[in-house]
Structure formats: structure tokens, C-alpha cells
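Record 1 of the preview.
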Amino acid sequence: MQIRSIGQIVLGIKRAYDWYADLGISPVGTRLQEIHDYVIYQLLNTATPEAKALEAGTGDEDTHYALIDGAGFGLIATEISKLPSHLLPRHTLRDVLKGPLAASEGESGPTADPRNKFVEFELAAHLSSAGFKLLGFDDLEFEFEGYRYLVECKRPSREGTLDDNIEKAYSQLRKKLDGPSSRGIVAVAVEKVFGLDNRFLMVETPSSVSALAVSIAEQFRDKVAKYESQWLDPRVVAVLAIIRFLMKTKAPESIGSSYTCGLVKLASPQVLQATDSNRLDRMVEKLRAKFLET
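->
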């Protein structure tokens, strides 16, 4: 789990804005500029209705995506800037700047795909920060213990589309996986599935945030456990929940964003995939160790 305070998010947004400009990709007129301006001029200006709602922990969808995606852009700038210039995925970097501030304004059409790519890119940044070697960005690919993992990310627009999104991702992975050392993971951003994008989650203390994220992950597990018996391709080894939300703690009183992942393993000893299952356990431990540092 990664938790970011408002101050850390603001610094990350400014870092991302400057980094894009340094790359020669102008953020002017993009979603990143909307995020930057909304946070700086609406949320940090204590006289505005948005700032007062933020302080009360009642921010709306605009506030959610300004802070949550702002934190994501900050991490992307930190991690992707480590790549050599010739390896930078400039086309994808431009794509993720497209679209409106609030996700509900871009649920279909040309702005839906950039948000899906943003989910992949943000996950790639988290994997990079944990020490995983990134192999590709058109579809997220990374290497772990000599295996190539291909991740198909989806962002359902509501709970009713969860199964369709997961099934589509599974079909896409089956077509793309090749070779004995290729494995697939379906990743799902679940904020709209669980209604996390239009409210703050209230917790007693920062340590309570982890328990809250675990409870959401368990709800997700219940929804997708059926695929363990339905999917027959052993190369698709897991479904990953990407859980992002804004939270307000009571003691001490603070506001921030949370990003965590919940892995539902499809590979298990019961289906004769003990090796894949154990490798996934080590992958989770590597991610967990990094999140505990931040």
C-alpha cells in the first residue's frame, strides 16, 4: 500500500508537470494541467467551496481524480524518468494526458482508452519502484524470475460491467501470450465497481487504512473466485485488483490518497500449478516490501 499526503501529491503533480515540459511534451491544455490547476487554485485555496469540502472530507469526483491521478502522475514522472531517453514510451506518455478531469465524463469514446492506459502506466510505475524490470508499455510487460508477465488492464465503468471487462481481458491475453515462459495477469481498477471515486473513506488511524484496503480486496476476491474453475488456460495465472481511494483519518486528522493491489491467484497446487503459485507469492512479497517502505 502506498499512502500520499496532500503535500506529497502537490509536489508530485508539479514534478510531473515540469518533467513533461522537459521532455518536449507540453502539458498545456491537457488533463495534467486540469489536475494541476484544480489542486493549486481550488483545493489549496482555503476560500473555495472545493477546499472547504476537502477539509470536511466530502469532496466530489473532481477532487477524487485530481488527487488520485495527481499522485499517479507524480509516481510516473519519478519512475519512468529513470529510463534511457530512447526507451521512453513517448506515444503512451502523450496518450495518458488526454481526457477530462473526472472519469465519468469520459466513459466511452476517444477518452476511455487514455484512462485505461493510465491505469497500466501507473501500475508500471509501481512495479518499477519495487524493482521489477519493465519490458514494454503498449501492453504492460515486466520480467520476474526469468518469466515474462503480460498485464491486461481494465477500468470498468460500473459494477455491472466487471465480468465483461474481465472476460475481455482474459481473451486478449490468450491471444498475446506466447512461449513457455509467458504468463498473463488481468488487472482491474475497481474504484467505480465499489463506488470509491465520489467519497472519502473515513478511518480512525493511518494503520486502519490497510485493514480497509484488505476488506475491499476480499470483496473483489468473492466476485472473481469463480474464474479459477471457469478459465482453462493455465498461462493466465491471476487477477489483480487495483484499489485507489481518498481517505481521512481521525487521529491524527489527515487527508490523503491510498493505492494498493490485491492479487487473486488462479494458479494453485490444486490445479497442478504449484510453481506458478509460489512464484506469485514471491512477487507479492516483493511488492509488499516496497509498499511498506513508502
